[in-house]
Inverse folding.
């Protein structure tokens, strides 16, 4: 199949990337990261999460971060809202899109949000309805779509089930997420095919972690299916608090480098993107977890 000529990247670094950082990241640093990402040409940024600070202390400043961003009309700013309380807290900050997430694994769902898959979807239904009534776009994520730290391999049928349930409650777009990064190209394609039974090609995206170094291969496998939207995280930030040993999301820099090498447009300036990744990595006092960024920074230094 012909590869897409253009790919849309959603940078989830400010939210998914930073949520599990042990040290406090001040609101102004998060805002600075969002500004640098939009300067680099990102049009979709997952900014923060309106969750209980008891569970995710790093996101306690969600409203402050959203209020501090200098918004651009051509950028879509999304926030995670796991329940009605989160959605109501998010509303004053005028998100362009909300994100809800359900696991394809029962064990993961119970460990992560203390309820079954069916119960999690029931919990999201009023959130989705309220958001759409206000003209806010709704994106859903299917976590542990390929493997689970508690159940092991996850069958594509589980992904299809969650996609069907999300479609039924009005979720407009679905992301297939390899939360612990165990997926390989064929397995990821099978999970994506399961989601495509209920969503069109323009309404699915891939979200891959690089635990076993498979994220770029998995991205390419999905590109070959015609999938043209992906979540990535600048500097490879992030992990998963409920998935022991899971490394960060695939680095935005690495994906953009590959896409540009394939002649696929992203609208992203790779040099400015590397600067954004270095900005947050410098604050966190570590090197960017991106091969492309490391190579470019070494070249600059040389």
């Amino acid at each position: 199949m012909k590869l897409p000529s253009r790919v849309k990247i959603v940078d989830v670094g400010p939210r998914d990337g930073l949520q599990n950082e042990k040290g406090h990241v001040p609101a102004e640093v998060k805002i600075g990261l969002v500004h640098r990402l939009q300067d680099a040409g990102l049009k979709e940024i997952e900014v923060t999460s309106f969750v209980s600070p008891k569970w995710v202390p790093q996101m306690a400043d969600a409203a402050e971060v959203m209020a501090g961003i200098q918004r651009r009309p051509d950028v879509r700013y999304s926030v995670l809202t796991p329940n009605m309380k989160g959605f109501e807290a998010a509303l004053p900050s005028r998100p362009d899109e909300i994100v809800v997430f359900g696991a394809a694994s029962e064990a993961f769902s119970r460990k992560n949000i203390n309820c079954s898959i069916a119960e999690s979807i029931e919990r999201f239904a009023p959130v989705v309805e309220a958001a759409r009534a206000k003209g806010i776009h709704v994106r859903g994520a299917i976590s542990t779509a390929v493997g689970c730290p508690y159940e092991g391999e996850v069958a594509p049928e589980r992904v299809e089930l969650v996609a069907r349930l999300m479609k039924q409650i009005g979720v407009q777009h679905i992301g297939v997420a390899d939360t612990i990064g165990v997926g390989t190209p064929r397995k990821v394609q099978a999970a994506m095919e399961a989601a495509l039974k209920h969503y069109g090609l323009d309404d699915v995206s891939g979200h891959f972690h690089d635990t076993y170094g498979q994220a770029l291969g998995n991205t390419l496998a999905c590109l070959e299916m015609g999938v043209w939207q992906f979540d990535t995280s600048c500097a490879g930030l992030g992990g998963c608090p409920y998935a022991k040993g899971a490394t960060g999301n695939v680095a935005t820099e690495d994906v953009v480098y590959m896409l540009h090498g394939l002649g696929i447009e992203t609208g992203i300036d790779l040099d400015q993107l590397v600067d954004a990744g270095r900005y947050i990595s410098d604050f966190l006092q570590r090197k960017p977890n991106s091969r492309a960024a490391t190579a470019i920074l070494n070249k600059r230094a040389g």
The longest strand covers residues 97-103.
